[in-house]
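User: Hey, quick favor. My workstation is busy. Could you predict this chain's structure for me?
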Amino acid sequence: MNAMSLQAMPRADGQALEFAEAAGNAAVDRGRRLFDLLREKWHEVPGGLMGRVDTEHVLGLSDWELRDFWRGVHHEASTGPAYPVRGWYHELYRDQFRGKRVLEVGSGMGIDALHFIAHGAKWHFADIAPSNLRLIRRLLDAFGYDCDGITYVEDLGSLDALPGDFDFIFCHDALTRLPFAFARHLALHLLPHLTPGGRWIELCYPRARWERDRRPPFADWGRVTDGDETPWAEWYDRDRLAERFAPAQFAPLLAFDFYNDDFNWFDLRFDAVPDRQKAMSYLSGAGRASHALGLQASAFQVHPGSEIAEQRTAAGTALRVRTSPRIWSYAAHGTIGAATLGQIVPPGAEDVLPVIEADVLVTEGHVGVGILADDLQNFVGQERLLVPRDAPYKVVLPCPAGLAKYRLMFRNAMAGDVRSEFAVTRLALACRSAEELTERQSDGVDGPVIPLSAIVRRHWATIARENEAPDAPQPKPDVPVFVRAVAIDELDRALGHAEPSRGIATDRGKDFRAWKMETDDAPILAYLYRNHRPARHLEFGTWEGFGATLCATNCDAEVWTLNHPDGERNAAGQMAYSRQMRESEERPDGATPIEGDGATYQTDAGAFIGWRYRKAGLAHRVHQILADSREWDPRDFAPGFFDSILIDGGHHSDVVASDTEKALPLLRPGGLMLWHDFCPAEGPMTDFPATRGVVNAVHRQWRTWSRHFVQIFWIRPSYVLLGVKR
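Assistant: No problem, here it is.
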């Protein structure tokens, strides 16, 4: 039993025990008793930003009073101070729901539903409280609206009778008020009614709110979150949702906390949806046998420079590990034999693999977790990279057949000679079906919009150390920042270009951490220059002149390019761009090595600045400016002088912000603004300081900068953010 479940046990009073007993009997009575207990509370529903109303009382209003009442509640709950609560997602999903079939679980008084119905959604209501549904019928009649259907949820069997093929299932905090085991029953009864590729949208309460409320038992926490007589409330994060739906797999399009961490939002796409029979088999636990492993420091081999120790917690023993400061250095590994793994696979089981499960809580730095072959050299599956957060990661590592021994390895994934610290709170052997182990290489950025605020928050400890004061508070905008994503193949339509962008020669499936400007972003930028055809182009960050050459060879532009004469430095004052060069490698005339080995050169300073455009014979079209961009005075150029501008100079957040502020007045209406090294995917955000600096600058200035553009979006996959000037 993990720490969360121990601390969440209900207190032993009559109401809590009755509720827990009803939840435990759900498999026998199909949840009838539990729903009856919930019905005693949930005819009282949210009625605005702060208040609650009893739907039995509202039913006494006349039609015109009812219309005015609902309009007032909707206005109070979604505009002005309440826009960050409901208004933002009313705006975000208004067009997405239009013409689509949406099943809402827990309809309340229809604050969300009637708004979306008015904008063309085909809505189906489901609720456990009869008075709530009577009020919905009255409201539909009063406004002259129609709906897709109304279902009274008497027990779990009522859900089985729902129609299928919903495009969306929408749950506004309905399941967060249920014990986890019963919420899993409810979710797996609902999931078969979703169409393949459909989306499950859910508002929950985050762990941060529970911790802020001093971690009360879930039987008590409901009274804190939703008032007296509320029998239960639980927190959720992405891992707990994955556990609730397992082994059904989803792609998380959105997952973030909002409104001062009072709520969190999940938009999950299910490409494969189980039928009812298969979903019910998930509840039986078939194919999920597991065997817990004891946590003893003596069972692990500790590598040089690392430390491991046992620690007693309320949930039992945990292993605390402190790594060596060297990036990618091994910290500790344990060995499991193939024979031991084989024992947990049920006899006669087909299409299942043994797996190693680990619950890992990262407190400092970045940690890599994976399985190595017996030689301790090669990973036999995908390594998981973990960054600090409040809740443990639930890591599942498949063990492919063919090895005599499997080495579970933990290592430091933090750059900059910084130690990482983490705790292993659970280890187990289990078996999982092939369906459950299907991996989605989304890196968390495969949705139509990217939750930038959530990404910045997830990496804030590192961002603050590199780009802000080390103890700077996490930014919490009133409304979370989202950045639209446009696939490379959709660029032509997004920008109105005649040349199909499908032909851009970039590997769409390449790991972001192996991405290179010269081979992967260059074809995208060349396409943009070729089709936008700027006459005058400005570039912050010349480096060796690759970018200026790329622009000048793909259009007739006259290019101005700016570079610090001494090159870029990181937060520690070290050279950002230097490398050892082989004797056979070409280098510019006059280049001198850095003192030391005689073979290492700083490639963005001195003779290296712009040497590639000079070699290409383009110096007559390129104007080189040597200056610190923060001190450069742009007043030599008239407003709107440039047709396109590339921001690719210093990557510290303050430098990116300064360069952008200077560039904005210089770009003409309809001109292209391009920010390089913007890639909000997990790998680059974990590994690359330049990416963290650019993403942080964009997030910090989003509300100001976005007003200057008619559209602004991340090109996926790439390291390019693109804006079209208003």
